[in-house]
Amino acid sequence: MDHPITDILKRRAVSKNAGIYSACTAAPLVIKAVARTAAENGLVALIEATANQVNQFGGYTGMRPADYAGFVRSIAAREGLSDDMLVLGGDHLGPLTWKDRPESEAMDLAEALVIEYVLAGFTKIHIDTSMRLGDDDPSAPLAEEKIASRGARLALAAEKAYAELVKTKPDAMHPIYCIGSEVPIPGGEQGSDSVSVTRPEAFCATVDAFRAAFDKVGASDAWNYVRGVVVQPGVEFGDDTVHGYDRAAASELCNMLKQYPGLVFEGHSTDYQTKEALLHMVEDGIAILKVGPALTFAMREGLFALECIEKELCCGELSDFRATLERVMLQSPGNWKKYYYGTDAELAVKRAFSYSDRCRYYLPNAEVEAAMEKLFANIRGVKLPLSLLSQYMPMQYTAVREGRIKADPEALVMDRIGNCIDEYLFALESPEEVPLF
User: Fold this and answer.
1) pLDDT value at residue 1
2) Secondary structure letter of residue 231 according to DSSP
């Protein structure tokens, strides 16, 4: 049986907008919204964790791969999404987290990371070895051959891990792989004013180098499972800017895909693109659309809007959600300080409203979670006038009026996240149009 993503991508022979979006997140409400939308629409849900979020030491979420897999599967099951319609992905798997260490040490850790992901049942593996390591020459470009050699080593480790997995789980799905060295920085760019599209010859060189490296280390079979190549199609975002997709600028690169049947592009940082731009990307061969910050950005918007409603309606102890989030971010600035620049006033705005959405790293904080729960409890404790909902959450007001959701705080926030998801579904083939399987 083919991998679900392989099945979807095969549809490209008859449908130019066959593809899938990937939700890269550890936020429970976002995962819940993704799973619910998939279940309601008969879609495959692709949910990914990055090496920084989830690794063998816990990452910033405190979860190892098996923990994250169980966490996502439990939410998906509660939302009615069957396990065969859920794909778990590992993003930026490689030595990124240990890039300051020597190659021998960093690659050993990266290999252990990939093995844990595969053994935990992750079946979409993005191999990322694009970064310099501690003993690489900092003044010289990292050679494509070295990037590919390191990537092939991780692919071989993944294949060996899968061979171990099927000994106890004979029906385990074989993982598919995405490769590529033109990878945006995880978490967004840091002040870039322009974005260069990957040169067609660079894409070809990447594919050729990786294929040769796979053969060299004895991972030729793994190459049969390479489905995507990560490229830069010219999309990115900053604090308050979005580099929109320009299909004319990317046309030469996208046309080169015709020489590599069976491969598609994976586009990272597709957050905040218009739905028409997303549609054009899928049509042009960027058939795996990675989104992360835009989903938690929408969640944060919903929470801030609810707090405005809370202040209008509620007496007694208020949640102070935004103030709590700000205080926690100031107390532990490690996840935003090197990304945001400006005066104190400008930094305060960025911490709350930047497209980079660095505040998402603080949502799992116990104080922030408690403030969110208090916010929900306060809203549930009063009658919510629809006229007030219209003021602060007009799209959700319409959804309530039309009977699509209830005027419950969690449902309202999830529907706001759903507005972002809908932008991606607009770009993708509907299961009502053509069966996926």
Assistant:
1) 73
2) E
State the alpha helices, DSSP H only, in 53-169. 65-78, 103-119, 144-168
Identity of the residue numbered 86: L
Residue 16: Cβ within 10 Å count:
15
Task: In whole angstroms, give the CA distance from residue 204 to residue 151.
Answer: 16
Neighbours of 258 (CB within 10 A): 8
The CATH number of 296-417 is which of 1.10.10.10, 3.40.50.720, 1.10.400.20, 3.40.50.10540? 1.10.400.20
> Where are the CATH 1.10.400.20 domain residues in the chain?
296-417
- Interior CA angle at 31 toward 349 and 19, to 5°? 100
pLDDT tens digits, residue range 97-124? 999 999 999 999 999 999 999 999 999 9
The CATH code of the domain at 4-291 is 3.20.20.70
With beta carbons less than 8 A apart as the criterion, state whether 111 and 160 touch: no
Amino acid at 80: G
Total-model pTM: 0.95
The Cα–Cα gap between 427 and 416 comes to: 18
Burial class of 352 by CB neighbour count within 10 A (0 to 12, 13 to 18, 19+):
middle
* pLDDT per position as a tens digit, 359-407: 999 999 999 999 999 999 999 999 999 999 999 999 999 999 999 999 9
Q: With contact defined as beta carbons under 8 Å apart, do 329 and 351 qualify?
A: yes
Residue 223 CA to residue 245 CA, distance in Å, equals 30
Enumerate the CATH 3.20.20.70 domain ranges in the chain, comma separated: 4-291
pLDDT for 51-99, tens place per residue?
999 999 999 999 999 999 999 999 999 999 999 999 999 999 999 999 9
